[in-house]
């Protein structure tokens, strides 16, 4: 969608607060773009009570706007925001995205994405609880498995024993 098409959809105003100055399109994955002002984009300071504008924007019929409002409300640490988010009646396509489990990404100590079957190297000595040994720094762990529910854990074999290893103590080989 071009900026002109977005501005036509939004009526030439921020789709959160209604401001009509310094507007830009912002991509909201996976639903599409929204039009936001500098404050709502986080590029300038907000005023006290600014985010109360989300109370009206929560009822938008545009899936991208509704999902962006829901995400922003989740980031606000205020009681009214939690109540509004919990009370939102989401469009079916937005509800599907909200209900989908979040993809867990496993990253090593350097931030490199890990995948099942990768080989990693331990970057420090790790005492193995219940194993009675210490996995030494520099040990290669081949054919790792990812723990689906926890991005900080992987599984692998060290000295013939299957152990759970924290991703912060490995680097991808």
> Any idea what the shape is?
elongated
What is the H-and-E element order?
HEEHHHHHEEEEEEEE
Please indicate the count of domains.
2
Counting DSSP E segments of at least 2 residues, the number of strands comes to 10
User: Based on the structure, what is the oligomeric state of the protein chains?
Assistant: single chain
The number of helices is: 6
Instruction: Please compute the radius of gyration using only Cα atoms.
Output: 23 Å
Query: Helices and strands: which structural class?
Result: alpha+beta
The overall average pLDDT, rounded, is 93
Helix content: 25-40%
Order of adjacent strands in the largest pleated sheet: 6-3-10
Give a structural overview:
This protein is an alpha+beta fold. The chain folds into two domains: 3-99, no CATH class; 120-172, SH3 Domains (SH3 type barrels, Roll). It contains six helices and ten strands. The chain has helices at residues 3-10, 38-41, 54-57, 63-75, 79-87, 92-99; strands at 24-28, 32-36, 120-122, 126-128, 133-135, 140-141, 145-146, 153-158, 161-166, 170-172. The strands form four sheets. A three-stranded antiparallel beta sheet has the order 6-3-10, with no helix packed on it. Strands 7-8-9 form a three-stranded antiparallel beta sheet, with no helix packed on it. Strands 1-2 form a two-stranded antiparallel ribbon. Helix 4 crosses helix 6. The longest helix is centred in the middle third of the chain and has 13 residues, at 63-75. The radius of gyration is 23 Å and the shape is elongated. The two termini are 41 Å apart. This is PhnA protein. InterPro entries: YjdM_C.
